[in-house]
Fold:
Amino acid sequence: MSGPHAAAPGATRRASPSLRARVLRHVMLPLALTWLAGTVVTFMVASYFTQQAFDRALLDDAYSIASNVRPNPDGEVALQLTPRELTAALFDRAEKVYFGVLRPDGRQLAGTPMPAEGPAPGEAFHFSEFTLDGHDVRAVTLRHQVQDRPGDYRVVVAHTTVTRGVLAGRVLVFATLPQVLLLALLAVWLWRGIARDLAPLAALQTTLAHRDASDLSPVAVPPTAREIERVGEAVNDLFVRLDRSVRSQREFAGNVAHELRTPLAGIRALADYGLANPTPGVWREQLQRIAASEARASHLVDQLLALALADESDAVLQREPVRLDALVGDTVLRHLAKADARGVDLGARGLDEGEAQDFTVLADAGLIEGILDNLIDNALRYGGKTITLELAATPTRCTLAVVDDGPGIPEAAQRDLMQRWAQGPDGQKLGQGAGLGLAIVARYAQLLKAPLSLATAGPQGGLRVELIFAKG
Structure:
């Protein structure tokens, strides 16, 4: 094969991931994503409230300074704090703090000039961020009114954000690290737990890998998980079906080898005799005998195949609505020429005594045809001069019977004759068949769950073979 999709020679198949790894991934991946989303939300919430706390402290400093912006005795507005008091008010061990006081006209009253944004109309304060002396700072601008003075003074307090960043990092670490450790412990615990739960599956795999191909005995499945038990039961069911199929094939091969040996030897002897005799009349007689022997051998092979197929059809038999009246009519027509050739009156009774639905059953048409073919063939071989197929129906079941006026079968021999390779005295005397006809009928009836019975047809003898089909 060539083309873009053809596999390169010597290409190796990529190894599939283990079931344990796949289960762990399906569990841990959603859990990790959920943890990540939770961590992000937790960090954002913690950062928000931390920011609120720092901003609250910054605003308190601004209010503290603003409370000291008031008029001097001479009426001039000034910051009424000494340098010592100012240092104490704005003291921060970790951050650098800046402040400034602006007059209503924007002129600097005290502190350090800063590019802070003023509060919007209607707002008392406003937070902003900017760079001052090469440091990132966060500032609050507070609107402040001095008594009896027109306009609004603005008090600006700012400090660097080093502590905020450090605290945010610590929050992130302490929120993440314990959960990472918990996830790792959970992954290890799940890995070991999954391995422990899958150990019976690995043991089953090892058992099957080292088992001899001829060993079809059930494997031991310990009661662990329901899914593993179902796998074991499915494997054992497969072994049962394979064992039945292998035994059927072996039996079929043995039967063919055993039963065809005699007909083939006879055909060979007839052919050798004909070749050794130069008379054309003898050739014709031997060819006729060869044809008859071949017909018997072919019939035997057909019966052996029918039994082999019956043994294997138990698990795959599909039932469907079958009209017994139509099936019986077709069967009579199919065997009518053979019956006329033997001088046998072949007919049917009861086909016109009900409607179509009265004779409809859930069954397999092929198996019913096989039953009728074998019963008619047996009756033609061993029966008398009349063969009748009878059909009767009740609301719950249909009865199908094949009746002949031949010698019949003694009650003591009926059960034995339904076994394979069993022949009655008449069959052995005639030298026809191999004792498989009634065995096939019994097996087909068993598959169809149709009770089979053999009885004397009447006071004059004969045989009545009856099957009862339940309506679906």
User: Anything to note?
Assistant: The mean pLDDT is 79. The CA atoms of residues 399 and 468 lie 5 Å apart.
